[in-house]
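Read as amino acids, tokens; as here:

___
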Amino acid sequence: MADRILARDGAGTVKPERIPARMLLIVGSLSAFGPLCIDMYLPALPDIGDDLHTSASAVQVSLTACLVGLAVGQMIVGPLSDRWGRRRPLFFGLAAFVIASLCCALSPNIMTLIGLRFVQGFGGAAGIVVSRAIVRDQYSGTAAARFFSMLMLVTGAGPILAPQIGAGVLQLGSWRFLFLALAVAGSVLIAIAAVRLPETLPVEERSAGGVAATLRAMRVVATDRNFLVNALACSLAFGAIFAYVAGSSFALENVYGLSPQMFSLAFALNAVGMISASQVNGYLVARIGSARLLTYGLIGLSSAGAVLLVFVSTNHFGLAGIISCMFVLLTSLGFIGPNATALALNDFPDSAGSASALLGMVQFGTGAAVAPLVGLGGTHDVLPMAIVMAACSGSAISVRLLFKPKNEPAKLKDCNIVTATVVANEIL
């Protein structure tokens, strides 16, 4: 990179330094494990159900298991990396990811696949939480904001490319090849990180507080009204998106006849809308403020959810109407995720890690709860997905309007917004 920024050296002092392209690519690849775990096998969900002779709801439980693993993994690996350094927990998580991926490829039944998907998500969580910690270790203030800005271009490609990669792999063989590909990707990243990724948390700066201190910090966060309202609104919004993630392949492939390749293109288009909106949000937030942009995003989300339910119930406008509503839903998330996250974390500068982990757990937990619901009507019924999406999006705007904290800041620091945008992009 041509631009020079400020980074912290080992003693904590500030010095000018270029952002290494190697570090950007490695950290970006680590943070992409969430999208890869979730999105890459979406085109294959109908094939998995057919091959393992199980229902759509049961297949979607495997997505739930991965989401639960991602949530639990962040809660455990994050504090461990503060105590043991970044490399050891990272390599443990990546190794678990690789082994679980190989075993997923050999799964004889859906119950085995569900259990292994939890382990895979747990291992993938190490890449997400450690990558953010590595950036915090080395950069602060404006330097961190600029690193995160560039990192968004890497992590934001995940939701776009993952289904495309998955559809391409399906051309080579069955859905089991997808998990073999994930195992290979994880193995390559382990080798690269072992050689090229240094330990960024010196021994003298590691936490000695243990689990008790982490739980105390989380209890303070969990009882704060500002955090609760924004976290709940954000999590319900993500619940609508996770319903889309869990049900869109069945809806678009089985009901509307799209091929896995065409589905991946539609999914990528929606992801482009979300990422583009997050970039627009970065330009508008200084003038309009996080609070107003969050409300506007929730209004767009809930409106699209309600219209989608009407279209599905009345069978009007067909595939074009469904895809249009989904595009507005995903685009709205580009305004919701960054601002809700920044508002939720704003009051916890000294416990941002614990607050971020708790927020991630609530978001992925909500996704895990709603994902199986979209398959209750079977593999050829779109209505359950539309109902869940409309209910979650309507509940999100209701929470925001009814319980908005009176002392909520209208505008936040740029660094908070940029960091929050990266966290939001990593979820999909």
Summary: Confidence is low (pLDDT under 50) at residues 1-17, 421-428. The domain at 18-427 is CATH 1.20.1250.20 (Growth Hormone; Chain: A;). The radius of gyration is 20 Å. The first helix runs from residue 21 to 31.
